[in-house]
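Internal tracking record. Fields below are filled automatically when a chain is submitted to the structure queue. Please do not edit lines marked as system-generated. If the sequence contains nonstandard residues, flag them in the REMARKS field before resubmitting.
Queue: standard
Priority: normal
Entity type: single polypeptide chain
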Amino acid sequence: MILVTGGAGFIGSNFVLDWLAQGGEPLLNLDQLTYAGNLENLASVEGDARHLFVRGDIGDSELVAGLLRQHRPRAVLHFAAESHVDRSILGPAEFVETNVVGTFRLLEAVRAYWRELPEGEARAFRFLHVSTDEVYGTLGPDDAAFSETNAYAPNSPYAASKAASDHFVRAYHHTYGLPTLTTNCSNNYGPFQFPEKLIPLMIANALDGAALPVYGDGRQVRDWLYVGDHCAALRRVLEAGRPGATYNIGGWNEKANIEVVHALCDALDAAVPKAGAGYRAQIKFVADRPGHDRRYAINAGLIERELGWKPAHTFETGLRRTIAWYLDHAGWVANVRSGEYKKWMERNYGDRDGLRSALPVK
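SYSTEM-GENERATED OUTPUT FOLLOWS
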């Protein structure tokens, strides 16, 4: 058995579904079900005896210790995190509590469990920590892409909290010998992504006839990684990664935000045409967020050389799959865009150039 934290969130739920579809062994899924955790993501495995879900906090040391003793996982995959930069700017305390304190408490519980394992089980055990490229800071237009040896230079409260968690994982390997693995991934997209992130937000607002809010001049560059490719990379790292190593996972798809929005609009024009002007007419440039990093880029050469992984999807093929999923799952989108999500959207976008039209109208 493996233990997955945050397995009801975007990347975590995709990993759980992918793991079970690939015939992986049973897994224990620990998720607190905050705003971005959604059991509806896992509806297709409801009743699957290989999937055991427990609602709980990674910072609850007694709970985690009990689950480890009871289920004796051979590995822990740590997805659980607060992950949205805008939310970290508006309220950084939750990011410190979950990403830093929560990871520390999880590491302590795992270290105590690992120390009591028989020698062979202890040697085979792995703690895989899923992190982000944002810990490396920002790049100039001609700078080389981030490699695993780049110095950390986080620029948002979110990035700082993830950098701190990365450092704790590294320290627990070097100080205590805990067999850790760390992955730093680029911008994920795909099914089940909460619609505060760029691609699902633009799809939902476009179909609603609402404004498509683009920060600043829209020339911020990100590397885009289809979530299914990310899951495949994580399986490979868990299988063959070197204890103590860090692996950057990227899609080799650098795109400016405005390019992504244009591609989405054009794809929606073809898939769901509307009368009059195309979806690009709904684009509205809004005030940039504070400290917005200009460019991220991932050099994913190490994981390809050592472990033989590289992404299977181009941005174009991944985007087609993503749009098709959201068009086919309008009910899921409607459910997650109710209640607290609407309040947050108004708080984040409502005071940017008077952009009330960025809010969902349904």
